[in-house]
Amino acid sequence: MLKSRKIIWIALIFIMLFPASASASEPYDTFYVNHGTGSEWISFMQDVYMTGDMITGSDDTALNRPADLFVADNDDIYVADTGNNRIVHLDGQGKWIRAFGTEEGPGKLSEPEGVFVTHDGLIYVADTGNQRVVIYNSDGSFTKEFKKPNSQFLPESYYFVPVKIVVDDRNVLYAVSRGSYQGLVRIGKEDEFTGFFGGNKSKASLMDRIKRLIFTKEQLEKETAIRPQEVSNVTLSDEGFILTTTTGVGSDQIKQLNAGGSSNLKGLKHDSEQIVDVALDSNQFIYVLDQRLSSRETRGMGTITIYSPSGTELFRFGKVLQEPDQRGILSNPVSIDINSRNDLIVLDSNLSMVQFYTRASFGKTFFQAATDYFDGNYEKSKANWEEVIKQNELISLIYSGLAEVANKEGNIEAAMTYFKITYDAEGYSEAFWTYRMRLIEKYFFSVLVSLIALWLLYRFAVKPYAGALKRRLPKVVQMVLDDLGTALYTMLHPYEGFYRLKGRNVSFLSLGIIALLIILVKIATVYWTGFIFNPMNLETVVWWINLLPFLAPIVTWIVANYLVSTIKDGEGRFREVLQGSVFAMTPFVVFSIPIIILSNILVLEEKVLISSLSTVMWLWIFTLFIVKAQVTHNFEFIENIRNSITTAVTVGIIWIFIAVSAGLTFNLWDFGYQLYKEVAFLG
After folding, report:
1. H or E stretch including 621?
2. Partner of 351 at 20 to 30 A CA spacing, among 170, 307, 371, 514?
3. Which pTM value belongs to this model?
């Protein structure tokens, strides 16, 4: 008994000395969006933002269906408390200060849905229920109002129903008016209507275009006019740019408008049609709020998406559920803003609450490094990137930043390595240009002498004895070499070359070797093409999968051409069609080898040479296939063109048949498998 007590006391002392570390996991996942040349992939990672305080209030301070919030310069928060017909003023920590707009008089509000505070403290409110914009002093006292502007450019039927507003440094007001497809209503500092701004463009469907072609003018007049989607929200950046969001569209949901009303964010893309608001921090990083419900299908999408100042997607996090069961999960987010501490503040209408998200330690380090990177301060960002990489080495932007640092320091080999990690072909190309220049300066004379020596060796030591050496080779090898020579001759002299093949049986050994060369060269184009022109992870490449889309058209063309030509009384036998088609692919081998070599030497600015060679190669192959069909089947030119078109259609039919057969086979197999599982379960 005494021994047992001693063991228990020792265990308790051990637990007290070495307590288990407690950890709190966020109720949502965070993902980083990696970008490479022509590719994009997401990585699950640690949180950049953590769930902070949740402000709900109680009794008189409780919110009711709030619709908008705004963070002032001093970090105070203003909420458009729609259901309570008031504006709620909170301090930077979310503590109640006051509410105004409920007093009788000209300042009384009716279902306000938007609020904005200027640098000098004036509070603008979109008094939606009263169809006006109200201005209050910083103490909450009424100053003036804007109703529908008196302008000859606004018809009597136009309703001014402001829901969101911003005011720029010139005291020009921009208002989102419900039902207004023309864009933002712009009101100048003299209270005059100065026009609509930043409206969306209407997009005609395929059916609409068809109607325009075939309908009469009278019929078109009876059709419902195609209206663009109305702007849903508006935000003003610290630099004075107007940003709009549009709900219900699949592209251009977010626009950063220039003076002409067009968007500067051409590269920003988002895959949701339920974007409701956008905010920008002091370094111009963009935070997008999405109302889309979270589900298994939308995992990895996120509720809040963070973009770089140039519109490159960086992070996704957050979750939206109809009935949230944890703090930090939202139900119906309607507005987002950010304070000077870089806390994200989100307003939820269904939950009638304000949710804070605080930037995690990892997020602070990352955004400091990213800020320096996007500002071009690469050397300054190095220490922060090195700290970030200690915590997460899967973020591609880290290596982009370190690559730029290495470039500035003159460490070109390291820069190329980092650019390759991020699959950044453009950055790699710029670094490789410098690396290539160094090699040329160092080894140009040696390479030139070596090339001249090799040519002299071939000219005086190999070529004079090539014929005698060939005659000493086994007859099988001589035959294969002759067939390879015939393939090259046919490439340069198509008609004469294919006439030589007509009626002749090329050995299957020679055909197999040529076919094997074609396959090997195709595999070489995948694995040995220079990174600049093939920026991909070769470890994930499955060589035979890359061969299928290359060989399938050739094989189906051979079969289809033989079948169609036989029906049309073509003279060619299947073997002649086969060997002619194999010989017609000779340019692929001849051109691909120098293309592979050049792809490891040239940079992106010189890609026109590679693209030109590729174009010539495929045109050459196409021409050889046409000539082969004409000579093999003894067709006239026009007849051969018709036959080739019919062959192409037949190829398409064969592919459709294979696809349908594969689908039916899979469904039959799946039915049998499910039936087996059910019988096994019941048994």
Report:
1. helix 607-633
2. 307
3. 0.81
